[in-house]
């Protein structure tokens, strides 16, 4: 239901952007631009291990899930070079899986899924270069860094009650990407990789069964996102 509503909203957003672009094809160059964009993101876990009392658990895996983003930005132009500070809201989804050993047995329990749904405010700083600089057509590449402030995380497992965590968690990532401008219509494709390793101790999840306590998940993450918007 949510995905259907979001899809209709994005289609409407596209139609409005196309109409805006057709009415603003006058070639002009700005020292400062600003814009807004909407898009999708996907979390990929580049390294993943689950431990219990220093023992690596079997069937450790993850599932990529799509999330959403809203981003506002400014662009300071120095001929072909640009500096772009950004502020964005991101909605991330992840599913981590693992199996626990059966006591006094060499077998393992069936794999369980830990669903992690988080919301974050990201501050980004990018520096880029427009390979194509023939307004209203621009094609640029950029690199930069992001500070990711996760302020809300929802955990859920089939075997335990859902748990909401509102502690602020700060993380960092490096960014590589490309952008395309057609008049005021703006497209952005980027890849982000987190720098520190993330640790999740299941002891932080209240009402989780005792045999799932002392499970530690160690992971590094990357994000791929695509968005479309307007730049004035």
Notable features of this structure?
single chain, about 230 residues, mainly beta, Porin, 8-stranded antiparallel β-barrel, about 65% strand, elongated
Task: Characterise the protein shown here.
The chain is mostly beta strands and 232 residues long. The protein has a single domain (2-231), classed as Beta Barrel (Porin), CATH 2.40.160. The chain has one helix and twelve strands, in the order H-E-E-E-E-E-E-E-E-E-E-E-E. The chain has one helix at residues 2-22, and strands at 32-52, 55-56, 61-64, 66-78, 81-98, 112-134, 137-157, 160-165, 169-182, 185-194, 198-201, 215-231. The chain has an eight-stranded antiparallel beta barrel. The longest helix has 21 residues, at 2-22. The protein is elongated. Mean pLDDT is 86; it is low at 20-28.
In short:
Helix content is 9%, strand content 66%. It is mainly beta.
Number of strands: 12
- CATH architecture call: Beta Barrel
Number of structural domains:
1
Order of helices and strands: HEEEEEEEEEEEE
The helix-and-strand class reads mainly beta
The chain-level mean pLDDT equals: 86
Number of helical regions: 1
Main sheet: strands, sense, barrel: 8 strands, antiparallel, barrel
Enumerate the spans where pLDDT stays under 50 for 5 or more consecutive residues: 20-28
Secondary structure: helix percent: under 10%
The level 1 CATH classification is: Mainly Beta
Radius of gyration: 21 Å
Q: Give the strand content.
A: over 45%
| Amino- and carboxy-terminal Cα gap | 33 Å
CATH fold topology: Porin
Overall body shape: elongated
User: Strand order of the main beta sheet, please?
Assistant: 1-4-5-6-7-9-10-12
């Amino acid at each position: 239901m949510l995905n259907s509503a979001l899809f209709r909203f994005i289609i409407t957003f596209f139609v409005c952007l196309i109409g805006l672009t057709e009415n603003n094809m006058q070639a002009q160059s700005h020292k400062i631009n600003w814009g807004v964009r909407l898009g999708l993101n996907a979390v990929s876990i580049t390294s993943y291990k689950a431990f219990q009392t220093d023992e690596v658990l079997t069937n450790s895996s993850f599932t990529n899930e799509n999330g959403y983003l809203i981003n506002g930005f400014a662009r300071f132009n120095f001929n072909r070079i640009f500096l772009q500070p950004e502020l964005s809201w991101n909605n991330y989804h992840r599913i981590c899986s693992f199996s626990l050993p059966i006591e006094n047995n060499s077998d393992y329990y069936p794999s369980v899924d830990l669903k992690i749904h988080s919301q974050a405010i990201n501050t980004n700083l990018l520096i880029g270069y427009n390979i194509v600089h023939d307004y209203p057509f621009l094609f640029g590449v950029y690199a930069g860094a992001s500070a990711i402030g996760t302020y809300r995380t929802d955990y859920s497992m089939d075997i335990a009650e859902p748990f909401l965590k509102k502690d602020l968690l700060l993380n960092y990532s490096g960014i590589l990407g490309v952008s395309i401008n057609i008049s005021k219509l703006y497209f952005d494709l980027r890849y982000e990789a987190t720098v520190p390793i993330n640790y999740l101790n299941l002891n932080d999840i209240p009402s989780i069964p005792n045999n799932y306590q002392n499970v530690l998940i160690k992971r590094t993450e990357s994000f791929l996102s695509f968005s479309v918007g307007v730049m004035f």
